[in-house]
Specification:
Length: 225
């Protein structure tokens, strides 16, 4: 149940490469209970502070994030600035619920439903060359297939994520770097018609907490696919 609304932000952009007209998307920050599909072990680590994306009155997707994301880094790495690579591959980042079919960055259609989001690095293989401007991604796993809070080994993560697309490739959300100091949650336009949900999240490193920026592609597709 939604208990209160924190804010609304609108941004205009083309939803996909095939869109003839731009649409206005709204970003709403609100407190929302986690979907029933999310396992108990995961619920204990996730915040009910949610971020909902809408097209006018139509709900598209809602995100929930982990309260503290475990990471590994040296003091020197922290001083020099953290990146996604300090988060172990396969770590749970959050959950997304799609109200409508979602077309991911690889142009795959993911059915409506609830999915966990785990971080992974794009393999350095020939079929991936130049298909994305960055190599960090969040992979979707159907929530009813993902019930452990522990990081998943890459092979198992890929196996579970493939179930989100029904094909032979995981469902993916491209991550752009976000090194800015601003803490506001907002939608940000990126090159080639991509738009990101931009926000800061808390990392936990050896008992200490630090902030890391995330920029998650919620619209737009690869131009090289």
């Amino acid at each position: 149940m939604i208990r209160f609304e924190l804010g609304i932000l609108l941004i205009t952009f083309a939803v996909s490469a095939c869109s003839a007209e731009p649409v206005k998307l709204g970003l709403k920050s609100e407190t929302v209970e986690l979907p029933d599909a999310v396992a108990r072990e995961l619920r204990q680590e996730l915040s009910t502070d949610a971020f909902a994306i809408r097209d006018g009155d139509t709900a598209l997707m809602t995100f929930w994030f982990r309260t503290e994301i475990p990471a590994k880094a040296t003091a020197e790495q922290i001083r020099n600035g953290l990146t996604y690579h300090e988060i172990p591959e396969g770590t749970l980042i959050g959950v997304v619920k799609f109200e409508k079919p979602f077309v991911d960055f690889r142009k795959q259609e993911i059915p409506p439903g609830t999915y966990t989001l785990r971080i992974a690095v794009q393999p350095d293989t020939g079929d991936h060359k130049d298909t994305a401007p960055h190599t960090d991604f969040l992979l979707h796993c159907p929530a009813n297939e993902d019930k452990t809070i522990e990081p998943l080994e890459l092979k198992e993560l890929v196996k579970r994520s493939i179930k989100s697309t029904g094909g032979d490739h995981p469902g993916v959300m491209l991550l752009f770097p976000h090194f800015g100091k601003e803490k506001d949650v907002k939608l940000v336009a990126q090159p080639d018609g991509v738009t990101c949900l931009q926000l800061k999240r808390t990392l936990k490193i050896d008992g200490a907490t630090v902030s890391l920026g995330f920029a998650i592609a919620i619209a737009g597709v690869s131009k090289k696919r």
